[in-house]
Amino acid sequence: MAFTAQEWTEEYGRVKTSAIDLRASFATPSSSSSNPSTQQLANLEQTVDKLDYRLGTMEQNPGQFGISQSDVVRRRELVKGLRHQLSLLGTSSHGTNGLATGTTRDGSAASGGGGVPGGLRTLAQQRREIIHEQDELLEDLGKGVDRLKMQGLVIRDETGIHHKLLEDIDGDVEAAASSLRMEARHAQRIREQSTVCRLYICIAILLIILVLLLVIGFT
User: Fold this and answer.
1) Transmembrane segments in this chain: where (predicted)?
2) Which residues face 109 on adjacent strands?
3) pLDDT greater than 60 at residue 111
4) What is the mean pLDDT of residues 156-182?
5) Which of 20, 45, 167, 218 is surrounded by the fewest CB atoms within 10 Å?
6) What share of the chain is helix, strand, coil (3-state, %, to 5)?
7) How many CB atoms sit inside 10 A of residue 123's CB?
8) Burial category of 88 from C-beta neighbours within 10 Å (exposed 0-12, middle 13-18, buried 19 and up)
9) What global pTM score does this model have?
10) Quick check: helix, strand or coil at residue 86?
11) Please, what's the b/e burial string for 139-152 (b: 16 or more CB within 10 A of its CB; e: otherwise)?
12) Torsion sign across C-alpha atoms 63, 64, 67, 70
C-alpha cells in the first residue's frame, strides 16, 4: 500500500489551503503574461487528479485502507467540490487578467460605467460557493460529532453493564470458593471421625477377647 487514508486527507487539506491562498492572489490582478498564479492553479489541478486517482484505488478496497463506503462517498464529494472551486479560480483568472489589461475577454475595451466587473462578480460568486461548501462540511462534522457522542454513551452503558456482570461473577466465584472450603472441612471431619470409630471398634473387640480369656482361665 503506497499511501494511507490519513496521507490522502492531509494532501487534500494542503490542496484546499493552497486553493484559498490562490484565490486571494487572483484578487490582485497582474498584467504580466507569466502570472505565477496560473502555474500554481495548473499544479493544484494535477494534485487533484492524483487525489482522484488514489481515491479510486481506495474505492476498490476500502477495508484495506480502514475506511467505510460512506467515507469513500464523502471523499468523492470533497474532490468534486475542490474541482469546482479550481474551475471557478480558472474562470476568475481570465476575468482578472482582462481587468488588468483594460479589455474584456473578447478583446474589447472594458466599460467605464458603474457596473460591477465580471471578474469581481465571479470572485463574489466563488466566495459564496466556498462558504456554502464550508457550511456543508461543518454540518457533516457536527453530525459526525453527534454520532461519536451517541457511540460514547452506548459504550459507557455497555461498560457499566459489563462491570456489574463482572462484580456478580466475582461474588459467585467467592461464594463457590467458600462452599468448597466448607465441604473440604466437612470431609476432613468425617475422615477423622471414621478413624476414631475404627479405633473404638478395635478396643471393643479386644475387651471382648480379654473377657473371654479371663472366663476361660477361671474355668
Assistant:
1) 199-218
2) 103
3) no
4) 86
5) 218
6) 85, 0, 15
7) 21
8) buried
9) 0.43
10) helix
11) eeeeeeeeeeeeee
12) negative
